[in-house]
Amino acid sequence: MCRYIMTFAEYSCGHQYPLRRQRVDCNRSWCALSTSHNEEEHNHRQCATELNPDLNLVMPGFCYPHPCNLCLGRPPTRGNGRSGVRMGPNGWASDSESSDESGGSPEEVTVNGA
Known about the structure:
Helix content: under 10%
Region (Disordered): 79-114
Structural class: mainly beta
Strand content: 25-35%
Oligomer: single chain
């Protein structure tokens, strides 16, 4: 089944902020969400119709030896004190406004109360 990979930045204070959310296609013919889903007429009751849970990764290049902006009392920025992932009104997430598939203006995802 398909899933999303969420990449995070982590700061010495322990706070983590999402940087990007990317869809990963499982390429299985029996997954209705995959681009490889069987196009021939068949019984769709046997097809997977739900995503696997998100895979959350802290990227090695984004582990910082200092506290995040919120802990330092500075204004938050994307990926440092607030989410770097944007969520459109239709529920699709993207890492930039230009890739928003909703046609509307995206909203920020709130993480860790930030």
